[in-house]
Amino acid sequence: STQSTGNLQSEAPVSSRSATLTVSGTTTSSTLPVAYDVSFAYSRYRITANEGDAVRVLCGFIGNPTPTFSLDIGTEGVETSAYNTWGTISSLSADTTSVTCEGRNSLGTQIMNIPVHVTGTLQVEGGRVVTILEGEELTMVCSESLANGEPIFSWYKNGQRLDGQTSRVLEIANPTRTDSGMYQCFGATLYAKEQSTFAVTVSGVVAVPVKVTVTSEQYGLMGATAQLSCVGEGNPVPSVTWHRKDANSETAMPITQVVYVETFTQVLAILNIDNVSMEDDGVQYICKGDNSDLYDTSVIYRADSSITMQVVDPIEPSISLPSSSSIKSGTPLTLYCSVEGSPPPTIEWFLNDVLVEGAEDETYVTDGGAGIYKCRATNLLGTVEQEVIVESRPTYSGGEIFLILLITAFLLVVVVVMLLILVRRNELERRMKEANAKDELLLENEKRGYTPTTPQVLAMTPSVPAASTNGELGMMQEGVPVVTEVECQTPRSILSPRPQTPLNNPPPV
């Protein structure tokens, strides 16, 4: 019996397989040539490309004997590789619909048709420089050709999409200078996307003399790079240059290391000063610009603007501001924001996160309203800010004040009356407790048959013999007053205490 143990190769032709032969219990292994039919090792089943593109077609066969390989486009052959696994179509034509891939050996033939979809090459025409005067109609046409399918158009100005503009034609009926810019037309199909650019300059019909403005800070940080900016405006757009004038010099020397950024209505000239030192302190930098008249080029307009460099040590801004304050409603409050830093920071005030226009000093006087006030300080090194919460105390009219006083007086009277009642109640309770204590002591003594003597009674009360009438006890012992039985059984009241027995008269018998 034989058993195949080899693997087919997908890129190189296979000419043999491994086989194992077993005869009468003895096994031997060797590589034996095995013939088999042609079959596909790999195939690219669909091709999509643009017209004129070079396309590589993978269509490999395996078989033994090694099959031959061919690619055909209609009646034309296609260049194939040395390994008979792929072929190259150097230039795909628009009418190509399929590629025939064929492999054959002595045992058979295999043929496969690979479908081809050729897309058109989208070409968008444009790329023009357009210069017109204000009021002249502006028309830009974004035409296309060789598109496979109907293209979809979109328009952009300076990178921003123009909403609603989906036609191949963009028209501006009455352009102004603000319509100047870079316009882009995009044409897109399912298979391609192309663009074209129109550089549009709309010039004013009235000549505008040049105007230059230095827009940068006058401070330079020691050891850092200072950047000076100058904007030139006019119609036509002016040319701008930078010049340096030292403190001890009478003439300004032109500077050539300037970066220019031009638009259709103005030009920006940027001057970078590296490694600022004290030698740059006090140096005057002058920005000069000029342009000519629209209708008479012999008429030249000139203008300049300057800045004097001040070199400072870099210190980040800091703020000192109270965290809260309380005012009477409607009363102005002066807030002081102590700011430090180098270069000197600029100051802004905010009320409830809304910028207060014109408030640029350390001192700010409120209009008497409450809210959250914020002081912000900014210089070349950064920005810091701090808030202060201002609360408003309520105000009252004359009638409201009288009513408040009346209510307060009433409450005071109520409190005083309640205190007097409480004091009187406590006094009565105290007297009742004292009387109850005396009564309890007296009853206890009466049960024992005597009452405590006092020094006065012992001195003034004579001894009287004891006598008894109607069962009543009327005995007077020496130095001890005698209490009758009826009196012991009669309750005493703290409001009507028992009267004392006269000293000169003995108790009744």
Task: Count up the helices.
Answer: 3
Roughly what fraction of the amino acids lie in strands?
over 45%
Mean model confidence by pLDDT: 75
Rg over alpha carbons: 58 Å
Anisotropy-based shape: flat
How is the largest sheet built, in terms of strand order?
5-12-11-7-8
Q: How can the largest sheet be summarized?
A: 5 strands, mixed
Provide the helix percentage: 10-25%
Number of strands: 42
Distance between the termini: 161 Å
Query: Helices and strands: which structural class?
Result: mainly beta
Poorly predicted ranges (pLDDT <50, ≥5 residues)? 1-19, 456-480
Can you tell me about this structure?
The chain has 509 residues and is mostly beta strands. Helices cover 12% and strands 47% of the residues. It has 3 helices and 42 strands. Strands 5-12-11-7-8 form a 5-stranded mixed beta sheet, with no helix packed on it. It has a 5-stranded mixed beta sheet with strand order 14-21-20-17-18, with no helix packed on it. It is flat, with a radius of gyration of 58 Å. 15% of the residues are buried. The model is unreliable at 1-19 and 456-480 (pLDDT under 50).
Describe the protein's topology.
Blueprint: E1 2-4, E2 17-23, E3 26-32, E4 36-43, E5 47-50, E6 55-64, E7 68-73, E8 76-77, E9 79-80, E10 86-89, E11 98-105, E12 108-119, E13 123-125, E14 128-133, E15 138-141, E16 143-145, E17 152-157, E18 160-161, E19 169-172, E20 181-188, E21 193-203, E22 208-214, E23 219-221, E24 226-235, E25 239-245, E26 253-255, E27 258-262, E28 266-273, E29 284-292, E30 300-308, E31 310-312, E32 315-320, E33 324-328, E34 334-336, E35 338-342, E36 346-351, E37 354-355, E38 363-365, E39 371-379, E40 382-393, H1 398-448, H2 455-460, E41 468-469, E42 472-473, H3 485-489
Parallel strand pairs: 5-12, 14-21, 23-31, 33-40
Antiparallel strand pairs: 1-2, 2-3, 4-6, 6-10, 7-8, 7-11, 9-10, 11-12, 13-16, 15-19, 17-18, 17-20, 20-21, 22-24, 24-28, 25-26, 25-29, 27-28, 29-30, 32-35, 34-38, 36-37, 36-39, 39-40, 41-42
